[in-house]
Amino acid sequence: MRKIVKLGSVIAVSMMLAGGLTACGGGGGMFTRDKPKTDAEIVSGQEGRTLWESGLQYAKIVDRDVAGVANEHPAAISSDELRTILASLYITQKSFISKNKELPLFSRAELQTLSVALASGLSQAQPNEDINFVSIGSHKGLIAKERKTITGRVFISEGRLNIVFGLIHEIYKDKDIATGQEIDRRLHPLLPGSRKSEAKMPIRVALDSGQSFYLDPKTDKERADWLVIDIATVLAEAKKRKTGDTSSVTPELLEDIARSKQEAGNLREDVGGIKEILFEMSDEIDRLKQQIEELKAKP
Questions:
Q1: Residue 152's closest CA among 35, 37, 57, 84?
Q2: Is the pLDDT of residue 33 over 70?
Q3: Which residues have a Cβ under 8 Å from the Cβ of 183 and sit 6 or more positions away?
Q4: pTM of the prediction?
């Protein structure tokens, strides 16, 4: 059974690589880039407390869920700065082929949308208000890209950006797999995080410089759903990682370069894993051949 599972993994990864090559060769395929909206399209039509809305996706200014130390709102943070911060966030994904790998938390389209909407929200919110968001982006899956949901509650406190996640890369479904019925989002809403209780999620953010999990003073334990980001440290670290003359290089291009390096590293690990599986399979095939020959030799 163990070898059968491994053979299945080889087939799955082979299909993934084939799909990727197809996408690179022409339009479409699983590596097709998301088409982000322009800043004007994101900001336009903001009414009242809604900053951005598209179907089930939104960014809204809401009352904070628990009384406490006042938020430092309105806050002056640019969309470019916020994009840099959000682009620095990665998740750790378990892999059955190779060691765990890190993948971007947000897709390119999500980065552009949320950085503009959240920056606008933080500049408008009052000390007793947060910004909630629901985002459904296209992310790497086992074989092809999949629609995955990220939800969160955002606010600035003590000079740090806080994101309390409700969902991280939860596979989005329109219909219930068991019944085939449309999922009623009034009964099963895509909820952002809450200060009140920790959301239990199988995926967590991979911490980097200037990033930490919130330490709950009541339990003296970290909350893996609550990310605390030192804005100055993350921005300084991002600037330090830019080498050479980048005066004519856009943030988007630098982001593409960083993601390409990460994807290339992940691909090398996957190929190494495939080689290891094939090597083990060849040993198994030789062993089975030997058993067959021994059975044939018996009278």
A1: 57
A2: no
A3: 173, 174, 175, 176
A4: 0.68
